[in-house]
From TrEMBL:
Name under which the protein is recorded: Uncharacterized protein
Keywords: Membrane, Transmembrane, Transmembrane helix
Domain of life: Bacteria
Transmembrane regions listed in the UniProt entry: 59-81, 88-107, 113-135
Organism of origin: Pseudalgibacter alginicilyticus
Taxonomic lineage of the native organism: Bacteria, Pseudomonadati, Bacteroidota, Flavobacteriia, Flavobacteriales
Length: 144
């Protein structure tokens, strides 16, 4: 009989063993932080909740949601740096979006909960990138 089967039945799941080993090795890691990060991963990238059979469905969410996460992080950084230059409506939209995502990640972590807030997130990201980020593409520099 292997040593893993002799462990208490509460910890027989491999993911639970992985989480317990992370918590035992790293002193600065706590369970709530790991749970919050896994819930955010489930919301944005549709990770499975249990040990169900893996499918290809999360692959269709990864690219658009990765762009959304990058846009969110960039918008949050720009909002912090240029806080005084933003309209109060944009600041309230950003605050509402962050509180909504934080609350949903604490309560329940299903992918469909990101869809009601998606238009507000896209307006916030597009406003921030349109007003405070300049993209320059010089096509004639390659011909020299």
């Amino acid at each position: 009989m292997s040593t893993i089967t002799n462990i208490n039945k509460v910890f027989d799941h491999r993911i639970r063993l992985g989480i317990m080993s992370i918590l035992m090795v790293n002193e600065y890691t706590n369970f709530n932080m790991l749970k919050e990060l896994s819930n955010l991963g489930r919301i944005f990238f549709d990770y499975p909740h249990t040990n169900q059979q893996p499918t290809n469905r999360p692959l269709f969410y990864i690219l658009p949601h990765a762009l959304l996460v990058i846009g969110l992080l960039l918008s949050i950084f720009i909002n912090i740096v240029k806080f005084k230059q933003f309209d109060i409506a944009i600041i309230l939209m950003a605050l509402f979006s962050v509180v909504y995502i934080g609350g949903i990640s604490l309560l329940s972590s299903y992918n469909q909960f990101i869809f009601p807030i998606l238009p507000i997130l896209l307006i916030w990201i597009s406003y921030t990138l349109n007003n405070y980020v300049i993209f320059k593409i010089n096509l004639f520099s390659l011909k020299k």
